[in-house]
Write a structure and sequence with these properties.
This protein has 21 helices and no strands. Helix 1 crosses helix 8, helix 12 runs antiparallel to helix 13 and helix 15 packs antiparallel against helix 21. The longest helix has 30 residues. Helices cover about 75% and strands about 0% of the residues. It is mostly helical.
């Protein structure tokens, strides 16, 4: 495998940012105790993360081929290592907001670059779809690892302790290692830099034009709604475990890892299944199973008692069952991303990756803030029942996406056979 070093580097980059980005659920729980903020106020952290992703992606996606994918990733890793080093000494709710803004800014560069790089280092659509699922499954491994790293620094007997901030020294170190590995990994970007260089405004206009193509438009809606579902669950699961299931803070964070583990397994499995079964059949089946799981699992939380649970052995059944939803929603995001990217020439992958990142970020912010307000007003069970609404909308979007994509493929085939 000639590209093994750059592939390994992409995995590690994703691993680092998986921990940082998806620590938002853990941090939401911690800032409520450390800084005395409410659920609705804490939910703003998702916006600092996701809106910075959206804004930076919007600004650089059409220009990133000029910066260079490798250089953009190095800038992101170096900057986030610096910000992580500042976090323990400047710990406050304001600094936490700045941390997530920096994380979102850097991840925008990382994700656009990683998605576009996949198009360079894979040879066909099947390899593209498979590698996309594998790298997204490794992202979930990073999230899983992050829950245990953060829980190791949390003190259950002192909710106001800021010992958990020391975890950022470790994350700065991992970022530095990722920087050095990427620096040593070769990447030939000539295939996306060849040809006439357009003015920046023309590149930007091309990205906007791409966004209004019907196939891309329905894809954008699908990606937005999927991430809305995923982040509304992932960001609020530690708080749900703590306030609804009455688990200790450490256990609440640790048991949220079940969601990350099930999502990683779901995406890894999908990397195999999607080679044999059409993506639309797989994803519709997954959505139906996810909806059934919500209806089965949430009622299990209603029987929780008033005694705080401190061990896995005594945790209620609902704490184990609901996070398994990750198995079913997991394949959706990488599958639709691969479908849209592999339908476009490599030159457009940077701009398309930017659109993916922008609307994914907006979906994540919307999901977290809406869930936070429902959680505060009506309770955690109602907040998670709400996920059934976007699941139904997503099913409709996937149906339309599949129909348009089939027409698009048919038109390409007709043009090729007619010699155009």
């Amino acid at each position: 495998m000639s590209n093994w070093r750059i592939k390994f580097s992409l995995f590690l980059n994703y691993f680092v940012f998986a921990i940082l980005l998806n620590s938002v659920g853990t941090v939401i729980l911690q800032v409520q105790g450390n800084y005395g903020v409410s659920e609705s106020s804490a939910s703003i952290l998702e916006a600092f993360k996701d809106l910075s992703i959206a804004i930076v992606s919007f600004l650089v996606a059409s220009y990133i081929t000029r910066i260079g994918y490798k250089r953009a990733m190095l800038i992101a890793l170096g900057f986030i290592a610096f910000v992580c080093l500042l976090m323990p000494s400047l710990g406050s709710f304001a600094m936490t907001k700045l941390l997530f803004a920096a994380t979102g800014t850097c991840f925008a560069l990382i994700k656009v670059s990683v998605y576009a790089t996949i198009g360079i280092i894979t040879t066909d659509k099947k390899e593209h779809a498979s590698f996309m699922n594998f790298i997204e499954s490794f992202f979930m491994v990073g999230i899983l690892t992050g829950y245990f790293i953060f829980s190791a620094f949390v003190k259950d007997n002192d909710p106001t302790s800021k010992n958990w901030l020391l975890v950022y020294y470790l994350l700065a170190g991992i970022s530095a290692v990722a920087f050095l590995l990427l620096l040593s990994a070769p990447l030939d970007e000539s295939s996306v830099k060849n040809g006439e260089r357009k003015p920046f405004l023309q590149d930007f206009a091309d990205m906007v034009k791409l966004a209004i193509v019907p196939l891309v438009l329905i894809f954008i809606a699908s990606a937005f709604i999927y991430v809305l579902i995923e982040q509304s669950i992932m960001s609020w699961l530690p708080t749900f475990n703590s306030k609804v299931l009455n688990l200790s803070t450490t256990l609440s964070i640790q048991m949220a890892s079940i969601l990350a583990a099930s999502t990683a397994i779901g995406r890894f499995t999908a990397g195999i299944v999607l080679r044999k079964i059409h993506w639309f059949l797989v994803l519709i089946g997954c959505l139906f199973a996810a909806a059934v799981l919500v209806l089965v699992a949430i009622p299990l939380a209603s029987g929780s008692n008033d005694v705080q649970v401190t061990s896995w052995a005594t945790a209620p059944l609902g704490a184990f069952v609901f996070p398994l939803i990750g198995l079913f929603i997991a394949p959706i995001y990488p599958a639709i991303n691969s479908v849209i990217l592999s339908s476009l020439p490599a030159r457009q992958h940077g701009a398309m990756s930017g659109l993916i990142v922008i609307f994914s970020a907006l979906g994540g912010t919307t999901g977290s803030i809406v869930t936070g307000h429902i959680f505060e007003a009506y309770g955690g069970q109602t907040a998670f029942y709400f996920s059934l609404v976007p699941m139904g909308i997503l099913a409709v979007c996937l149906f339309i996406f599949n129909k348009i994509q089939k027409k698009s493929e048919a038109n390409v085939t007709i043009n090729m056979t007619s010699g155009h």
